[in-house]
Amino acid sequence: GAAELSMDAKNPRNLYAAMWEHGRLPWQVISGGPGSGLYRSTDGGETWEKMTKGLPDKMGKMAIAVSRSNPDKVYALIESDSYGTARGLYVSADAGRSWSQVTNEPRLLQRAWYYIELFIDPKDENRVYVLSSPALRSNDGGKTWEDVPVQHGDTHDMWINPDNPDNFILSDDGGAAITFDRGKS
């Protein structure tokens, strides 16, 4: 299995976890299975509650992130039925109690078994970054997407300066790129 964790920056006792069964065989990629899902803890990880309201029944690889500027806003990128409409970006406005799908834009989950990462601008809960084969940015909470210019494809990780979100570092298969103008240069 595999997991990803996100913490509420204003209350570290609030934790969110994405867990999925994972396996890669020469003839098959396994993504999802029993126990796969999104979980929430409000007591620092002592107990966990599976979040289900508004989420797909079958979930594969996922990424989850809680907004630093509004901890009630949580985004999850979910691989689901690979060619169906359940896969995509989901959002919760009530700290994970209920969810709704924002988009099933295919570019967000290209080669999900290899990479999908999700980041939220620390000062703008509606500016969301997804790292996949391209680096993508939404300025409207995930409704529309634009490419973030990078030196190389296959983007894998990101650090956003919490004091100045125009400054971030993107890492990809070609190394790392630093910007001070939100990716224009």
Q: Explain this structure to me?
A:
It is built from no helices and 17 strands. Helices cover 0% and strands 42% of the residues. It has strands spanning 2-7, 15-20, 22-25, 28-31, 37-41, 49-51, 62-66, 74-78, 88-92, 100-103, 117-120, 128-131, 135-138, 146-148, 155-160, 168-172, 175-179. By secondary structure, it is mainly β. It has a four-stranded antiparallel sheet with strand order 1-2-5-6, with no helix packed on it. The model has no long low-confidence stretch (mean pLDDT 90).
Summarize this, please?
By secondary structure, the chain is mostly beta strands. Helices cover 0% and strands 42% of the residues. It is built from no helices and 17 strands.
List keywords for this structure.
4-stranded antiparallel sheet; globular; 0% helix; 185 residues; mainly beta; single chain
